[in-house]
Amino acid sequence: MNPVLTPPPLSLYVHLPWCVRKCPYCDFNSHEARGAAPFEPYVDALLADLDHDLPLVWGRTVHSVFFGGGTPSLFPSEAIDRFLQGASGRLRFAPGCEITLETNPGTAEHGRFEAYRAAGVNRLSFGIQSFDDGCLRRLGRIHDGAEAESAVKQAQDAGFDNLNLDLMYALPGQDPAMAERDLERALALQPAHLSHYQLTLEPNTLFAARPPAGLPDDDTAWDMQERCQARLAEAGYAQYEISAYARPGRQCAHNLNYWRYGDYLGIGAGAHGKLTLGAEQAILRRWKVKHPAQYLAQAGRAEAVGGDERVEPARRPFEFMLNALRLAEGFALELFEARTGLPRAAIAPQLAEAVDAGWLETDGARVRPTELGLRFANDAIALFLDDVADNTSERTRPGDTGAVSAETVRRAGPD
Ligand SMILES: C[S@@+](CC[C@H](N)C(=O)[O-])C[C@H]1O[C@@H](n2cnc3c(N)ncnc32)[C@H](O)[C@@H]1O
Ligand code: SF4
Q1: What is the pLDDT of residues 221-276, one digit of tens each?
Q2: Percent of the chain residues past pLDDT 90, beyond the cut
Q3: From 149, 293, 310, 380, which residue has the greatest number of CB atoms within 10 Å?
Q4: How far apart (Å, rounded) are the C-alpha atoms in residues 170 and 63?
């Protein structure tokens, strides 16, 4: 008999799709706001969307909320407040529920951080990328290094102690010493959490069409990563995921839930959700229409659902590994069974292969990636994809996440 598929902790993802300007490397569902974006109608749409999805999560408690974008910090605090009041009237929020808002330092305004805090936001994630003015210019960012530092300090003065800073490395024109200087400036601000992403050229971005000059080669990028990783460890930040580092007890609860193959309700334009339906012993993926104008017009109705898909049992090991093998802690085999509804025997051959390759280690109860395994996570994950292909006769390319959007994967990369 198969293990019982048990509904895991539930998170709420809220997508706010506007930015001041579209960055040339960005493939997120983000749109340049020409003039003021329709903030209040969008909050109405989000609440209607939430009402529509509520029957999928009746009686469940929300353990974290993440406002991602786009640039959520473009939204006035009154709009965030109204949404959170509406959401907490419809769903039970766990005590101490982590509520994160992504913030572009170029949108910081005096007084805004206090108001976000008063609305219930208790964690900010700053898209810093770099403190170097030349790098920031080449990335098309709307802020300079000094503005980035000042925005973080303003948030700290407003009482935020749980801050994440996003840094990118392997930037055009950057050498390893510059990447280290960026990291030093970030550490000087003493954030609780740091996300360190290698710049990637994503399809359908300006950078992919016309790659910028001066991109570091792979060896140089690897050198930057190793140096920064060592410096972060020395400064007391433990790497708990491929790109995520935290002080003790400061891991991002929201992203950890993704990586542990937890559940999330996704509302907002293009938002993706994954929900375990205990009674049906099924896993449902649902995503919303992508374009903000269409979403605004249709939210709350069936037309706003871009698609629904059941995750077939044969695909679950791959989806589980796509998340769990990013984590330094790995996973308990018991968790695999509860989250996928499959016996551990279903993945025994691939696990043995990954252990042989030196990518994973196991004591029979837990499975952990080795240092090599974290570096070659994609190869380890791809082993579980083969099984899906064999079982469904539907070939899927390694790295192809199907209904799992690149945003979900990188966001659960990204903070
Ligand atoms: C939605 S953005 C964060 C908030 C806000 N929009 C901003 O950029 O300031 C999420 C993060 O993903 C990372 N990111 C976006 N595109 C990337 C790319 N092509 N390569 C690596 N990291 C990327 C950036 O660090 C960015 O801060
Ligand atoms: S990186 Fe952030 S600010 Fe830039 S376009 Fe993407 S979501 Fe918007």
Answers
A1: 999 999 999 999 999 999 999 999 999 999 999 999 999 999 999 999 999 999 99
A2: 90
A3: 380
A4: 35
Asked, as a colleague might, if the bond just before 70 is cis with ω within 30 of 0, I would say yes
Ligand 2 atom closest to 142 (CA): 3
Q: What is the DSSP string of 67-104?
A: EEES-GGGS-HHHHHHHHHHHHHHSEEEEEEEEEEEE-
Q: Please state the atom number of ligand 2 nearest to the C-alpha of residue 129.
A: 1
Which residue, judged by its Cα, is nearest atom 23 of ligand 1?
199
How do residues 259-271 score in pLDDT, each as one tens digit?
999 999 999 999 9
Alpha helices in 100-165 (DSSP H): 112-119, 133-138, 145-157
Helix, coil or strand: residue 368: strand
The pLDDT value given to residue 402 = 36
Q: Which domains does the chain have, with CATH numbers?
A: 10-256 (3.80.30.20), 317-411 (1.10.10)
194 three-class SS: strand
Of 15, 16, 19, 167, the one to substitute when testing ligand 2's pocket (max ligand atoms within 8 A of C-beta) is: 19
Mean predicted lDDT score pLDDT of the chain:
92
* pLDDT (0 to 100) of residue 34: 85
- Ligand lying closest to the C-alpha of residue 29: 2
Residue for token pair 């770099």:
130
Residues sharing a CB contact under 8 Å with residue 274, sequence separation 6 or more, in sequence order? 263, 264, 283, 284, 285, 311, 404
Atom of ligand 1 nearest to the CA of 68: 1
Cβ pair 321, 342 in contact under 8 A: no
